[in-house]
Design goal:
By secondary structure, the chain is of the alpha/beta class. The chain folds into 2 domains: about 15-255, Aspartate Aminotransferase, domain 2, CATH 3.40.640; about 260-360, Aspartate Aminotransferase, domain 1 (Alpha-Beta Complex), CATH 3.90.1150. Helix content is about 35%, strand content about 15%. The protein contains 9 helices and 13 strands. It has helices at about 15-25, 45-60, 75-85, 100-110, 225-230, 240-255, 260-280, 305-315, 340-360; strands at about 5, 65-70, 95-100, 115-120, 145-150, 150, 155, 170, 190-195, 205-210, 295-300, 320, 330-335. The strands form 4 sheets. Strands 2-10-9-8-5-3-4 form a 7-stranded mixed beta sheet. Strands 1-12 form a two-stranded parallel ribbon. Strands 6-7 form a two-stranded antiparallel ribbon. A hairpin with a 4-residue loop joins strand 6 and strand 7. Bound molecules: pyridoxal-5'-phosphate (PLP). The site of pyridoxal-5'-phosphate has 12 residues, from helix 3.
């Protein structure tokens, strides 16, 4: 078997030890006589899996007791609606920061439900950095501020937690969750689609402060009301059982190698290898401003669309998969999530050097 280095932005690589463990338990989980895929979500065996998944995530992220962890379906995109439905309840106002495509989608969805404004945007610089944020940008009576913490498509990230003062801060962390420690207490709500850094597609994790729950608009669909899911321990209906099981294995894997401090160190080392190379040459251009660089998604271009195409095709043939940039941006994007080994980035940099030498620009 020849596993490739898969730089896909999502669904993306999973840690090999997790895949091996899942394979070993595929036919028969413990002494249950069945696969996790075949189990009743109400069975005691499964109950332990979901409870352990939550416990491991709490341990990993150091989630305070006054926060609930919800395992949901519908992807991060469903949260674009769930957030305003649940949170825009006092003054029916929310302030959004536009830092790329996903935050813009979230903003447009929220506009259906109240008085929603773009408090800041970096669209004028083609989202090549995150907007600068200061408290005074936000309306004092906004019910919340929404940010996309790591912008998967553009390869940008906030260098520090945005300061919104007393206004509850909501963050889409789909593409950076559990890549490094974060102070959960600074956020009212964090949500993340699992398919970037946690599990297969089909699971969305929501970490929400207790006081936020229970104030949804009257017309909120029962499935989108955080109270429904919190009161039922994410089991109002059938949860994405298999994905939650894999997420549990991923959390256990990170804990086994030293937790999020260690994960951060490993991710910094990988990102530094790639960015240091990008900064040392002028064949490739890294369009993101240094202060906004993402540790998870690294974008670069040759400046020649034909060369970019050739790069992605030849990299693919060399076992470096999915390096083509998002269709809206072009160029290349290397997603180097937790499961990407250092050797994968080494192989990428070696390929980049070879490609540059073999394809001089005119
Ligand atoms: C991938 C992604 C989304 C969309 O996630 P879905 O689970 O496909 O709905 C939203 N926000 C960010 C930051 C993402 O990376």
């Amino acid at each position: 078997m020849n596993r490739v280095y898969n730089f896909s932005a999502g669904p993306s690589m999973l840690p090999v030890p997790v895949l091996e463990r899942a394979a070993s338990e595929l036919m028969c989980y413990g002494d249950s006589g069945m696969s996790v895929m075949e189990m009743s979500h109400r069975s005691p065996v499964y109950d332990k899996i979901i409870k352990d998944a939550e416990a491991r995530l709490r341990e990993l992220m150091n989630i305070p007791d006054n926060y609930k962890v919800l395992f949901l379906q519908g992807g991060a995109s469903t949260q674009f609606a769930a957030v305003p439905l649940n949170l825009m309840n006092k003054n029916k106002k929310a302030d959004y920061v536009l830092s790329g495509q996903f935050s813009t989608k979230a903003y447009k969805e929220a506009q259906k439900y109240g008085d929603v404004v773009a408090a800041a945007s970096s669209k004028d610089v083609n989202f090549s950095r995150v907007p600068e944020i200061t408290r005074d940008m936000f309306r004092a009576d906004a019910d919340y501020v929404h940010v996309c913490y790591n912008n998967t498509i553009y390869g940008t990230k906030y260098p520090t937690v945005p300061d919104t003062g007393d206004i509850p801060l909501v963050a889409d962390m789909s593409s950076c969750i559990i890549s490094e420690p974060v102070d959960v207490s600074k956020f009212a709500l964090i949500y993340a689609g699992a398919q970037k850094n946690m599990a297969p597609a089909g699971l969305t994790v929501v970490i929400v402060r207790d006081d936020i729950i229970g104030n949804a608009r009257e017309d909120t669909p029962v499935m989108l009301d955080y109270k429904t899911m919190a009161d039922n321990d994410s089991m109002y209906n059938t949860p994405p059982c298999w994905c939650i099981y894999i997420a549990k294995l991923v959390y256990e894997w990170i804990l086994s190698i030293g937790g999020l401090e260690k994960m951060k160190e490993m991710n910094e080392k990988k990102a530094a290898l790639l960015y240091n190379y990008l900064d040392s040459q002028d064949y490739y251009i890294a369009p993101v401003e240094k202060s906004s660089r993402s540790m998870m998604n690294v974008t670069f271009v040759t400046g020649d669309a034909e060369l970019d195409k050739k790069f992605a095709a030849q990299a693919d043939a060399a076992g470096l998969k999915n390096l083509k940039g998002h269709r809206s941006v072009g160029g290349m994007r290397a997603s180097i999530y937790n499961a990407m080994p250092y050797e994968g980035v080494e192989a990428l940099v070696a390929f980049m050097k070879k490609f540059a030498a073999e394809n001089p620009k005119k």
